[in-house]
């Protein structure tokens, strides 16, 4: 009789110990994140580029979209133009903005076919809006994200722009 109780106690102890293991939950849920880079100056000293690391790495499947704040339209409407972008100005001059990214950082490059410092409206106090799109959205779609306007991106991914951050990837 004692032997049967001892075997039952051992079996119950084994089952309970297996079921009481602590479960570790890792939240890898993707989030749409928007942040602004303000007062960016492109000079010879910084090789006409801006570089910054993310506060934490993105997921490998995530995607970065970049927009440059254009001078406001009449009536004060802000226009965000997608990057890469070539702006054609007078006398066959052009300014090019481009960017690249990794899971750790971003880099924005300004280039021109003339001395860009002679047109500070294109080299000084630039504002860029960075949109991090989780790979779960971009990877499941046949949409070319680089062809979407800022408004289309915000609407397509239901991004709350009232939570626009001023530092990289919270």
How would you summarize this macromolecular structure in one to three sentences?
The protein is an alpha+beta fold and 170 residues long.
Radius of gyration from CA coordinates: 25 Å
Uncertain runs: 9-30
Summing up helix and strand content along with how strands pair, one would put the structural category as: alpha+beta
- Helices, by number, come to 4
Helix content: 10-25%
Q: Tell me the major beta sheet.
A: 4 strands, antiparallel
Mean pLDDT: 76
**Spatial strand sequence of the major β-sheet:** 1-8-3-4
Q: Give the number of DSSP strands.
A: 8
- The H-and-E topology, N to C, reads as HEEEEEEEHEHH
What characteristic shape results from the CA principal axes?
A: globular
Q: Characteristics of this structure?
A:
8 strands; 170 residues; 33% strand
Q: Layout of SSEs?
A:
Elements: H1 2-19, E1 33-40, E2 49-53, E3 63-70, E4 79-83, E5 85-89, E6 93-101, E7 105-112, H2 120-123, E8 126-133, H3 135-138, H4 150-156
Q: What would your notes on this structure say?
A:
The protein is α+β, with helices and mostly antiparallel strands. The chain is built from four helices and eight strands. The chain has helices at 2-19, 120-123, 135-138, 150-156, and strands at residues 33-40, 49-53, 63-70, 79-83, 85-89, 93-101, 105-112, 126-133. It has a four-stranded antiparallel sheet. The relative contact order is 0.24. The model is unreliable at 9-30 (pLDDT under 50).
